[in-house]
Amino acid sequence: MALELFNTLSGKIEPLYASDGHALRFYCCGPTVYDFGHIGNFRTFLHVDVLRRAARLNGLPLHHVMNITDVDDKIIRNAAAAGQAIGEYSARFERAFFQDMDALNIERPEEIARATENVPGMVSLIERLAAQEIAYKTEDGSWYFRINRFPGYGKLSKKDLEGMEDGARVDLDEYDKDAARDFALWKAARPEEIASQAAWDTVLGPGRPGWHIECSAMAMQYLGDSIDLHAGGEDLMFPHHENEIAQSEAATHKPFARHWFHVRFLLVEGKKMSKSEGNFFTLRDLLLKGYRASAIRFLLLSVPYRHQLNFTFDGLTESTNAVERLRTFHDRMRKQAWPENTPADHPLMELIRKGDAEFTAALNDDLNTAEARAAVFDVLRAVNTAADQGSLSRLAAEQTLALLDKFDSIFAVLEDRDAERTRDALAWAEAENRLDQVSPEVIERFGSGSLADVEIDALVAERTQAKQQRNFARADAIRKELLDKGILLEDSKQGVRWKRK
């Protein structure tokens, strides 16, 4: 069974494939880097990450391009307030975005396209539209797209252009307010934009590109006039993606994107996330409260992308426990010496093979992450029971580890780098003078005087050596030293395991 995804354009689940027979040409709308990303943003990027990983599991190569919107109204306004050029202002939040991507173990695209580095291509695309009299210039020097010259407008979002009242805005950008149903392609320069280096002197006149033209121009420049897949959050479907289709297809007279992939946003504790509700969280907010990056990833992927996720702190605690159980089980399978093999047709072996098949089938069925997780957890429970009863063989353990490797190639939570990620967030808070936002538990655990993982490993190794040399006083002293710093040791037949309180 090939990987199949729901196509917003057709309203059907369809196979995903590379039309050129080589690599899936795939564009994803990236962040507008005016502030730190919130967990709703990262739910989208996490499901795009799962899509990447599932495609690779199916042997489908990718040419994935993601844009960075590094010029827009909010960036210009905030940069001016900070007394900075837009490039200096946006660079800070672009770095933060990629740091957060790394913390959540999100793979990077094959190419990153920054709006400010691709303005000539945007100008060229607007010129093509102007030559067909689909783009027109207004008295203030801005350029707009004539929606009534594109009969297919609304086919993605299923909105009826004829049903829109005259004067209704289809462009949510803050700049243009009086262009009726048409949307801005090029925005004439204002004095504050020139001052913050947010204007370009071009054949269109001094100004800057509109948000929508940025993505069309960059997608076509990096991937060609027609691409295989376009992805983004559900909030971008209208007007952003609708406008991308209109301006791209009007210019090229070719289909812009064959397949459209939209991720639903989330609720937080049953409510829409907003600062006024007090439930607006960036990734850094959660790390500085003491939550683990792996648990946040696991929770945000727990519900399939086309279903709304209700993000709760009880759910985050459950996710933390689930990741810990996975890691403990993984260690047990790797480190324990299991008895000789049982026959390949043993019922447990059949259960493992069935779980493997169900895991792959769930992913290929529109990226059903919930069913994929359930299939693997069913296997782990059965294998754990067999291990407790002393009936687990080496072959069954090896096959279980292979299934866990496949599972982790998608969910990516087994490697424990959570302490490192939290330390990075704490270092950022210290540098930004934001320690008032950090929970006391995080400061106690990761602040001055806390032990890094490598230091703990060294002390554990020293304690093991002390015990072998029958220096029990030193071994007990190390255990107490670790306990005083919140590190619990567990001695087992497979060696010493440690965890933080």
Outline of the structure:
With 501 residues, this protein is α/β, with parallel strands linked by helices.
Question: How would you describe this structure to a colleague?
Answer:
This protein is of the alpha/beta class and 501 residues long. The chain has three domains: 16-263, HUPs (Rossmann fold); 271-411, Isoleucyl-tRNA Synthetase, Domain 1 (Orthogonal Bundle), CATH 1.10.730; 427-500, no CATH class. The chain contains 17 helices and 16 strands. It has helices spanning 39-57, 73-82, 86-103, 119-131, 191-195, 211-223, 237-252, 283-288, 293-300, 313-335, 347-364, 369-388, 394-411, 418-431, 440-446, 453-468, 472-484; strands at residues 4-7, 12-15, 24-28, 62-68, 111-114, 135-137, 143-145, 183-188, 207-209, 227-233, 257-263, 266-268, 271-272, 309-311, 487-492, 495-500. It has a five-stranded parallel β-sheet with strand order 5-4-3-10-11, with helices on both faces. A hairpin with a 2-residue loop joins strand 15 (487-492) and strand 16 (495-500). It is globular, with a radius of gyration of 26 Å. Residues 165-179 have low confidence and may be disordered.
Low-pLDDT sequence parts: 165-179
- Percentage of residues assigned to helices: 40-55%
Total tally of structural domains: 3
CATH homologous superfamily title of the largest domain: HUPs
CATH topology of the largest domain: Rossmann fold
Question: What is the correct CATH architecture of the largest domain?
Answer: 3-Layer(aba) Sandwich
Strand order of the largest sheet: 5-4-3-10-11
Quick one: how many beta strands?
A: 16
Note the gap between the termini. 44 Å
| Sheet with most strands | 5 strands, parallel
Indicate the CATH class of the largest domain. Answer: Alpha Beta
